[in-house]
Specification:
Helix content: 25-40%
Number of strands: 11
CATH superfamily: Ribonucleoside hydrolase-like
CATH topology: Inosine-uridine Nucleoside N-ribohydrolase, Chain A
Number of domains: 1
Bound molecules: beta-D-ribofuranose, calcium ion
CATH class: Alpha Beta
Shape: globular
Length: 314
C-alpha cells in the first residue's frame, strides 16, 4: 500500500463547504496540503482570504496562503451572500487570523509549489477557476507538474445559479474553459453528485455530540448552510466542495463516468453550462476530458466527514 501522502494545492473561496473541504484534507493522513490559494466567489477576495486565514488558524493548517485577483478573468464578480452570509462564512465566531498571508500572489504561489515539488501535485479547486486558468496561461510548462485537478463545479444535467450553470463555473466561464481544454486530468464533482452528498439534521446532531470545540464550530457552520437550503426545499445541506476531496480519499464511494465536457462561454441562457458528451452516446467521436462523479454512497460520505471531525483533539 502506498503511504506517501498526496501533495495538494487547495484553491478555494470559503464558504462553508470550502471550509469543510479544508477540514477533510487537513484531517487526512493521505493528503499533504502544500499551499492554499484564494479566489473571489462566495464573497470578495478580501473576505474569502480573511476566512481562509481564520479557518487555517482554527484547524492548525500552516501551509502558505496566496491571495487571488479581485475578479474573474473577464467579467465582474458574482457573490453568494444569500447562501454564505455577508462575511462569506457567517455563523459561529472564529479566531482572528494567526497565520500570515504570503507575499506571493495565488498564481505565483501555485507556480512555486509546482516548480519545487519532486512529484506532480493535485489541485483541489472548490471555487471559480480563475487562479488555475491564469496559472495554465502563464505557465504552460508546468502542466506536467499537475497530477490532476479535482474540482467542484458544473453539472452534466443542470445548474443551480441559473437553470444551465453552476455557480463556480458561471462566475468565471473563461477560466473553466481554459482548464477543461488543458489536457490535465480532471475529476469533476458537479451538482449531479453534490446534491446527493447531503448532510441531514441527524448527521449534524452526531457531529455536535462529539463535543469538541471544532465539532461545535462545524455543527454551527452546517446549521447555517442548511438553513438556506431548507428554505428552498432541501432535506439536508449539500456538501458540494468536500466531494472534490473525498473523490481522492475514497473513490470507491462514488459512481464515476467519463465525459467530454465543454464550457459554454456564450449564450443568452446557458453561459457557464458544462456540456457533457459520452462516447457512444452522440453521433460524433468523443474523447473524454473529465471523470465526472455522478452518484455517492451518502452514508459512507457522511461517515468520512464525521471521522474527520472526530480526529481533531479540541
Ligand atoms: C459551489 O458554490 C459555492 O457557493 C459553494 O462553495 C460551492 O463551491 C456550489 O455551487
Ligand atoms: Ca466553494
Amino acid at each position: 500500500m502506498n503511504r506517501t501522502p498526496i501533495p495538494v494545492i487547495h484553491d478555494c473561496d470559503p464558504g462553508h463547504d470550502d471550509a469543510m473541504a479544508l477540514l477533510l484534507s487537513q484531517a487526512a493522513p493521505e493528503i499533504e496540503i502544500r499551499a492554499i490559494t484564494t479566489c473571489c466567489g462566495n464573497q470578495t477576495i478580501e473576505k474569502t482570504t480573511y476566512n481562509t486565514r481564520r479557518i487555517c488558524t482554527l484547524l492548525g493548517i500552516d501551509a502558505p496562503i496566496g491571495m487571488g485577483r479581485p475578479g474573474p478573468m473577464l467579467q465582474d464578480p458574482i457573490t453568494a451572500a444569500n447562501i454564505h452570509g455577508q462575511s462569506g462564512l457567517d455563523g459561529p465566531k472564529l479566531p482572528e487570523p494567526a497565520v500570515p498571508l504570503s507575499t506571493l500572489s495565488a498564481v505565483e504561489l501555485m507556480a512555486k509549489t509546482l516548480e519545487e515539488s519532486d512529484e506532480p501535485v493535485t489541485i483541489i479547486s472548490t471555487g471559480p477557476m480563475t487562479n488555475t486558468g491564469c496559472l495554465l496561461l502563464a505557465h504552460p510548462e508546468l502542466k506536467p507538474k499537475i497530477k490532476r485537478i479535482s474540482m467542484m463545479g458544473g453539472g452534466i444535467k443542470h445548474g443551480n445559479w441559473s437553470p444551465a450553470a453552476e455557480f463556480n463555473i458561471l462566475v468565471d466561464p473563461e477560466a473553466a474553459d481554459i482548464v477543461f481544454r488543458s489536457g490535465v486530468p480532471i475529476t469533476m464533482a458537479g451538482l449531479d453528485v453534490t446534491l446527493k452528498a447531503l448532510i441531514l439534521e441527524a448527521d449534524i446532531a452526531r457531529i455536535r455530540a462529539i463535543g469538541t470545540r471544532i465539532s461545535q464550530v462545524v455543527a454551527d457552520w452546517l446549521d447555517f448552510f442548511y438553513e438556506f437550503h431548507r428554505k428552498i426545499g432541501y432535506r439536508g445541506a449539500p456538501l458540494h466542495d468536500p466531494c472534490a476531496v473525498a473523490a481522492l480519499l475514497r473513490p470507491e464511494l462514488f459512481d464515476m463516468q467519463d465525459y467530454f465536457v465543454q464550457i459554454e462561454t456564450q449564450g443568452e441562457f446557458c453561459r457557464g453550462a458544462t456540456v457533457g458528451a459520452q462516447p457512444g452516446k452522440t453521433d460524433q467521436a468523443v474523447v473524454p476530458n473529465a471523470t465526472c462523479l455522478m452518484d455517492v454512497d451518502r452514508q459512507g460520505f457522511v461517515d468520512l466527514i464525521v471521522e474527520a471531525v472526530e480526529s481533531y483533539e479540541n
